[in-house]
Amino acid sequence: DIQMTQSPSSLSASVGGRVTITCQASQDISNYLNWYQQKPGKAPKVLIFDASNLETGVPSRFSGSGSGTYFTFTISSLQPEDIATYYCQHYDNLRWTFGQGTKVEI
Amino acid sequence: EVQLVESGGGLVQPGGSLRLSCSASGFTFSSYWMSWVRQAPGKGLEWVANIGKDGSAKVYVDSVKGRFTISRDNAKNSLFLLMNSLGAEDTAVYYCAKILDRHPYYHFDYWGQGTLVTVSS
Asked: Does the beta carbon of A94 lie under 8 angstroms from any beta carbon of chain B?
């Protein structure tokens, strides 16, 4: 099974600051990688699909990059409403694996 | 507007059973794969099961194989999860999620609000 290692597990940044989260796969997964945001008490919401595509309606301060085994998720200018836990997600034959999550605080 | 509404959660004793439901609206339910994803209290997300458009294809995470059964009723736009032999490790919020299929690319594009299952004596 492919393992997804997401880091860090938590981080604190200032409003307007840049946030970067990484997700590493145990083997080449091409660009079969999505990123989700989950606010406290809410269901997750997709932000980035196929490693780098921004979901419709998601602010452009969110971005994703990477291919193969190493992926990054970036918030270019952190806003108070971005406080949430972020998860990477891989799928293989419709079996889904989530990263451990990164809790983003201000 | 796409809506997914889960129900059926609650308190169940270890070894017991529970059936979750997810009522879908706002899209052609029979045209999409669907999933159940769970989240234990204070923990991360864990995919549980998928079901194909016509209900014939089913995939499960190893930890629930033989205990959980995913099913659907396309005539009633409903998704189900029958959970048997429940243990404390199954305590979680259970979400139903719609899969957007752009083969070979997939992602969950809509989620329900979740239903809490608590396994405790």
From this structure: yes
Predicted pLDDT at A94: 80
- Which residues of B fall within a CB distance of 8 Å from A89? 45, 107-108
- Of the pLDDT bands very low, low, confident and very high (cuts 50, 70, 90), residue A92 is confident
pLDDT at A96 over 90: yes
CB environment A48-84: b (16+ within 10 A), e (fewer) = bbbbbbbbeebeeebbbebeeeebbbbbeebeeebeb
Query: How near does any CA of chain A get to the CA of B25, in Å?
Result: 17
The answer to whether B81 and B72 are in contact (CB under 8 A) is: no
Per CB-CB distance under 8 Å, the chain A contacts of B106 are 91, 94
Do residues B46 and B52 touch, judged by C-beta distance below 8 A?
no
Which residues of chain A have a CB within 8 Å of the CB of B59?
Answer: 93-95
pLDDT band, very low/low/confident/very high, at B87 (cuts 50, 70, 90):
very high
